[in-house]
Design brief:
Chain lengths: 342, 342
DNA sequence: TGTTAGCACTCTACAAGGTTGAGTGCTAAC
DNA sequence: GTTAGCACTCAACCTTGTAGAGTGCTAACA
């Protein structure tokens, strides 16, 4: 365990590096932070900290920068948990009130808020629909050969698709099929709807096999739509303001990576435990972001975790601020969403 | 009018500059293009071209680059209209076949294809819904206090929203209201649905005024959703590969501009005439893109123009390629969309 | 024994100066 | 009208020197 002075020095280094992005020397620390010791003493302590792996040097005569281990210690032991100010909180709440009219906009604006406040990239993973339950499906009339298939979930998520009416089927047939499917599947979560159940339904229905195949196909297609989770991204341009992304090539490869939405979705999904989690540098499993840090938080509706929000940026990020904002989202995003009947 | 040799020289300059992004000198032209004259002669011709405003010089001893006027002449008079190769065409058609399952994906993938092929930013403006007609609205059951309002257009566009059932109204009341509204509005284009008509409906319905206000509000809200046109963007990261965007600040301000979706949508909407249109440099009205060029093309369904696709990039873009791809989209995007019943 | 001043050393960033090469315009000869 | 030759210009690049911030080590001090 580090003694008090080493902790102060490490804290000074991390704090300064986060705000300036420049390596910190012993003299700078002595000047800016009143530790009551001379630069020489600080130098000795820094040599120790480097030996212990908390800080590192880019070249012999440069100042020190925090290592991943250093950031980890900072986040775990040095950072006092801060809350957002009343003013910030009411600002955010107003923002939601003014800018959001649909559920989608809540996600969109959440991404915007997060990236604006933290000056980093934000990710908002929309509730996965397969965690919610099938309520009913319905065919709406469109024209002689086409119909609108509408699928409704218990959370009020509605998906629709215009489909061709299979030849030989009347609109009444469709209604009958819908009724039967609803009777059997209503209330089941999308995760629980397996091919086996669908086969059962087929057996129960004494109609033409071909006909059922068609209905089945339609439902499956709808399920594909349903399960298609969405990821909202915010503040990708913030990247360009960060000095670690001066190098255009770096920016490019990073943005290219971001376009692989499903990759990111996967990373976020890994987190099943509740609360705010910080992953620093090479703690990240996915190699594309191993010189970045990610802070993620779940959000809940009626006590159940339904999605994840996250902030992604250089390891040199303002962990205190980011964590407090995500803590806020962790506690309040569910409420906001609830207003929109999801 | 320029004589043949001046035209060849201008063409050489534009071609070379498009492919290398470097100013071109008289010697380079003499070496690369076999014009049968010495660099000195070319120098004289270039001096003339500069006087005429077709090319310009960044500083005294640099080569020449095309001016906006030069590009304009190149596009209008020097560029021989090229078609895409059979191979490219079938590649694109396969792409659509493999990657698109929903209408939205057609737009998405169109943006991707355009930016991939042209290495520039692409814009796809989705058909404006207010050009199509209201077909019907319907209330679907959800729970005791909420209902799902579904609005269907004649093009098969379906929008839905979960809303609170106004206090004092039964589900039957809602059905009655829907029926009446449908009888009056069905077949009208969204452009034609004005407040006046909605007022008329209110007068005809001998129900509580408050009650109608609510129904009206719902429809209006739905209309807002309907009219909300979407713009798909593609290849924003391509920007970073272009040498004219080496400067990070430039990239940032450009990307910030792109986020103002509605601005771009406005620029695209300006084009009402059919076909492929090229706007070069300061020919653009919108100041944010005055050192860029934009090539845009309309696309049609059943002969009627429904939307616009465009490619946006530095004035130094490969006009021949961009124009041929957009010509292709102009002629074929409608077909692709038609498969998806829009 | 922990702290500090002093010193020699290292390395980056920056500015100044020099060289190279691609380009130009002008003039005179073909 | 075309071309060779020449003097000139300017960006890009390399080299060199210097300033400044930083380090580690040692010896002296409380």
């Amino acid at each position: 365990m580090l003694d008090k002075r080493k902790r102060s020095i490490l804290q000074a280094i991390v704090d300064d590096y986060i705000s300036t992005a420049e390596p910190i020397g012993s003299r700078t620390i002595a000047r800016k932070h009143d530790l009551g010791v001379s630069p020489a003493t600080i130098r000795n302590e820094m040599a120790d900290l480097e030996l212990l792996g908390y800080i590192e040097q880019l070249h012999t005569s440069s100042g020190r920068i925090p290592s991943a281990k250093g950031y980890r210690f900072y986040v775990d032991s040095l950072l006092s948990p801060t809350q957002m100010s009343e003013r910030e909180i009411s600002l955010i709440k107003n923002w939601y009130q003014e800018k959001t009219r649909h559920v989608e906009e809540v996600f969109q604006e959440t991404a915007k808020i997060l990236s604006k406040i933290t000056s980093n990239i934000s990710l908002v993973l929309v509730p996965q629909v397969n965690q919610c339950a099938f309520k009913y499906l319905k065919f709406l009339p469109f024209d002689d050969c086409r119909t609108i298939l509408v699928v409704v979930t218990d959370t009020g998520f509605v998906e629709n698709k215009v489909i061709d009416i299979p030849t030989g089927l009347s609109f009444n047939d469709l209604q009958r099929i819908a009724e039967h499917i609803n009777r059997r599947l209503s209330g089941l979560s999308f995760e629980d709807i397996e091919l086996s159940i669908l086969r059962e339904i087929q057996n129960e229905m004494l109609i033409d096999v071909d006909l059922f195949e068609t209905a089945l196909g339609i439902l499956k297609q709808a399920l594909v739509v349903e399960k298609n989770e969405r990821l909202y991204l915010g503040g990708t341009t913030q990247l360009l303001s960060q000095p670690e992304f001066k190098n255009i090539e770096k920016v490019k490869s990073f943005l290219d990576m971001l376009e692989e939405e499903h990759l990111l979705a996967n990373i976020l999904q890994k987190q099943k435990n509740d609360g705010v989690i910080v992953t620093i540098g090479d703690e990240n499993k996915y190699s594309g972001i191993q010189d970045c840090s990610m802070v993620q938080a779940t959000y809940r509706i009626d006590g159940q975790v339904v999605g994840t929000v996250a902030v992604l940026g250089p390891t040199r990020m303002d962990y205190g601020k980011v964590m407090s904002v995500l803590e806020f989202m962790h506690n309040h995003l569910g409420e906001v969403l609830k207003k929109y009947k999801i």
